[in-house]
Amino acid sequence: MSSVRQSSAALVAPGNLRPLEDTQVHFITAPSSYAEAAHPHGVNTIASDEGTAVTFTTKYLLPQPGYRNEAWGDPQSMTMVGHYLYVIYCPMTWHNRGRMVRLDMAKLASLNASPLDIQRVYHSSAANDKHEQAIAAAIKIGPAFVTGHGQSLSYDWKTHQLYMWQDRESAPAVPVNQEGVIQQLSQTSLKPVHKVTFRLKAGSFAVPGGHVLAFDKQGRAYFWTRPNGNEVYIYQGTISRNHVRFRLTHQILEHGPGTHVQSMAYNPSNGRLYLVADESIASLPVKKLAGSGSLTSGDVLWTHFASRREFEGLSFASDGTAYLMSNHRPEVFTAREFQ
């Protein structure tokens, strides 16, 4: 794997910041314990009960056990690229390491693979089942590599590359160091092929890096943080082979979606950026982050789900179809439209 260490600062000095009173967004405290799927071997739904209406329905029950009996109960992120679904797995005992897995959705559809078929594909009882073995051939397993927390796998809609943070932690939300590392991953070998190391620092203002990542159609990169209380900072920037540069956008959201920064996604069909916490998702038009920002309260949409499920990933296909990933009996849900 090639690597670059950037000598110049990767963070632009923050400009004048101002709050946006997005009162329609409710900060949702993460539950003390998460719920598992109501139907652990069948089809489930996660429906909104407040805000913008949407219902997600199970598309895939993800494999349990995992490949070679690995602990795949806690996938960390996913992204859609054409007819492929890429998932990052980081077993707890692997300590900042994990692997990327690629599901060929077209092949799975041609095989009429049911959610249960996919869930049991690595079970010992599937070893001599020709249908299960054909399903296994539609799932490519990548090698182990340093992932960090693993929540940030994302597709650059302009360059058609996969990227993620290498955000190593000594404990949850405790970074190993103050450097940011972005790694580019191969869509065929399913491993990192290049990384850039840098400092997100401007004077006395610094952040160690992001934990989530999204790209828009122009190739601009985004991540969001909770610097204090309920507020949300949104960073916008560019990532290239030799250089990374981010700026803190000028409008601070007064009300973030919830406790844990779980995911971020861009919908190429409607140009909106989605901020994902557990059971709670806010979205906004990405074009209004430009310059000093022109977001109004009415631009920000919010959805709450009464599921007690842990949300781990959100991604969109080019036609706007939404894919939501949860863990604790991990599964991928889909919804035709999500505003």
How would you describe this protein?
The protein has 339 residues and is mainly β. It has a single domain (17-335), classed as Neuraminidase (6 Propeller), CATH 2.120.10. It has helices spanning 105-110, 115-119, 130-137; strands at residues 2-5, 18-20, 45-51, 55-61, 75-81, 84-89, 97-104, 139-146, 154-155, 162-165, 169-171, 174-175, 180-185, 192-198, 200-202, 205-207, 214-215, 221-225, 233-239, 244-248, 251-253, 263-267, 272-277, 280-285, 301-305, 311-316, 322-326, 331-335. The chain has a nine-stranded antiparallel β-sheet. A five-stranded mixed β-sheet has the order 1-14-13-10-9, with no helix packed on it. The radius of gyration is 19 Å and the shape is globular.
- Going by helix content, strand content and strand pairing, the class is mainly beta
**Overall strand count:** 28
Number of structural units classed as domains: 1
What is the CA–CA distance across the termini?
39 Å
Quote the average pLDDT: 96
Provide a brief overview of the structure:
6% of the residues lie in helices and 41% in strands.
Fill in the keyword field for this structure.
339 residues; 41% strand; Neuraminidase; mainly beta
List the helices and strands and how they pair.
Blueprint: E1 2-5, E2 18-20, E3 45-51, E4 55-61, E5 75-81, E6 84-89, E7 97-104, H1 105-110, H2 115-119, H3 130-137, E8 139-146, E9 154-155, E10 162-165, E11 169-171, E12 174-175, E13 180-185, E14 192-198, E15 200-202, E16 205-207, E17 214-215, E18 221-225, E19 233-239, E20 244-248, E21 251-253, E22 263-267, E23 272-277, E24 280-285, E25 301-305, E26 311-316, E27 322-326, E28 331-335
Parallel strand pairs: 1-14, 2-21
Antiparallel strand pairs: 3-4, 3-25, 4-28, 5-6, 6-7, 7-8, 9-10, 10-13, 11-12, 13-14, 15-16, 17-18, 18-19, 19-20, 22-23, 23-24, 24-25, 26-27, 27-28
Organism: Levilactobacillus paucivorans
Protein name: Extracellular protein
